[in-house]
Amino acid sequence: MDRGDVCNVTSISMPAHTGTHLDAPLHFVRDAEPIDRMPLDAGIGEARVISIANPEVVTREDLEQYRPARGERLLLKTANSDRCWKRRCFLKEFVHLNAGAAAYLVDCAIQLVGIDYLSIGAYEGDGVETHRILLGAGIWALEGLNLSEIEPGRYELICLPLKLIGADGAPARALLRPLQ
Q1: What pTM, to 2 d.p., does this model score?
Q2: Is 27 a catalytic residue?
Q3: Which of 17, 21, 27, 96 is catalytic?
Q4: C-alpha torsion sign, points 81, 130, 57, 66
Q5: Hey, where are the domains in the chain?
C-alpha cells in the first residue's frame, strides 16, 4: 500500500517444520498418516506441562515419576526454555527425548508429546529412532514450543497445524489456557 497498491500481500516460503510445528507420522514412517489426517482432538483438550530437571536428555526415569496417562497430551518444559530461545542460531546440543523415553510414552499410550525446542529427538545419535518410535505409534510430536513463561500444571491446549494436504508436518499455533 505504501507503493500505491490497494492492499498488502505477504508471501511465505519455509519448510513445514519451521518454528512451532507438528510432526505427522509420515515425517519418519513410510506410508503413514500425513498432517492433514491428524485428529483435531489430538491438539485440542487438556494438557499437562511437566518440568524436566535433567539438563541433557529426557529419559524414561525422568518421565516415570509423572505417570503419563492413556490419551494424555504431555508438554515437556526443560532447560531449553531458558537457554535455547535466546540464541538466533540452531543449537545442536539441546534437551531431547532418548529412545527409551519415547518407548515409555508409547507404553503409556499418550496421544501427543511436546517439547520446548525445535526437535523431540537429538540432532545426532538416537534422534531418528526417537521420532520413529513416537510417530510409528501414532503419537503426534509438537516441537518448537516456547514454555519459558509457562508454569508446570494443567492447561487447555488449543493447537492445530496448517492443513497441508499430504505433508509430513506443518507450522502450528499452540495456545495454553489455565484450567479453572
Answers
A1: 0.94
A2: yes
A3: 27
A4: positive
A5: 21-178
